[in-house]
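For the sake of transparency, this paper describes our internal protein records without simplification. The remainder of this section carries one protein's record, kept here as part of the documentation:
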Amino acid sequence: MISLQEFLDVSPTSFHVVNSASHELEQVGYASQTYKDAGGSHFAKDKGVVTRGGALIAWHWPQEITTPEGVLIFGAHSDSPGLHLKPNSTSTTLGWSQLNVEIYGGVLLNSWLDRDLGVAGLLYFADGKCKLISIDEPIARIPQLAIHLDREISEKGLMLHRQNHMKPIWGTNTSLLFTQWLCEKCEVSPSLLTGFELQLFDTQKSVVLGAMGEFLVSGRLDNQVSCWAVVKSLIENTQPTQPTLVALFDHEEVGSQSINGAAGPLLEHVLGELLHERKASQSFAAIAKKSVMVSADNSHAIHPNYLEKHDQQHAPMVNLGPVIKRNANQRYATNGEIASRVVDAARRANIPTQDFVANNAMPCGSTIGPMSATRLGIDTIDVGVPQLSMHSVREMCGTKDPDYLVDLFNLLGSTDF
């Protein structure tokens, strides 16, 4: 399995996350197909992968296990907040060529200012084919207004209009269409291009920083750290104690309400296909009662400059282990019984864990855990790596915690916790 930094650097979009993950699984014997093309024989394989857009389901399920004592599912989401290009992507203003973008998810807008941006995603063609692209060079930038023209910024703070102030500049040739430039760059015929799903990304690579190299800084740590960890664990755990699946969902940052999101039917359909091909003697409901899902998504680390934003008794610190995320209002799916089992197993294996509970005066985010648990009826626990700068174009976590997370997943996959 490639390193986390390599995974981050080659995965600027959810499509690239799925491409990177499926490639790594194929290298160790997992058969891969698109969900649309996968037939019964594909689901009969011991090790398989199906992909659909920015979503992926992979499994290690030996055929001889026809009546499993439950299944173990590791889930994460492949998308991150960002700037997506609109279909009519070119605009001009007083001699400047700009890009029309749509804000995706809860973007920390100020973090995208004065960054060198590339473009990546999918191109679609008249023959029904598509092409995954990544132009990993600076082509656009959103310049911040000079302080001389905004003298009150230090007192009132930076105020950004989502439509007017977030349009990147990409040139001064106002006669050049972005799609024309894109086709030339990607060596495709403009007459064949029928559409695209593209987004901008920060071209700066991931880095390790700190006096002792304690921190990892990169775009899209939320939630590509978890995607990398669940895939790495699936690869490393060659003898699971029960059928094991990995589900990477798209569209979590916008609510998961899509065919490729956690609220959609993809995982449920794949589980049904797997049970059908193994002629399972039990119903899906009977197996669900004995199954567990581990929902992996990053958590807030305590911020030393904003202590009032945290419950300091439940505020994780980087490099002290994975976080178990709890919320009485069910914004996370963790319950006391499954958390106790996981904590006990981790403690016996000397894997550190921490707890996160939100400050009562602050709204709490959510993730795929509650949605998957509700849809499937499977006991679920929400865990993740603590980080700072969540939803920034450059996020920050500890260098030890991703490996702790893999250790925890390997433990849960190889023991009857």
Summary: Residues 221-236 form the longest helix (16 residues). The mean pLDDT is 95.
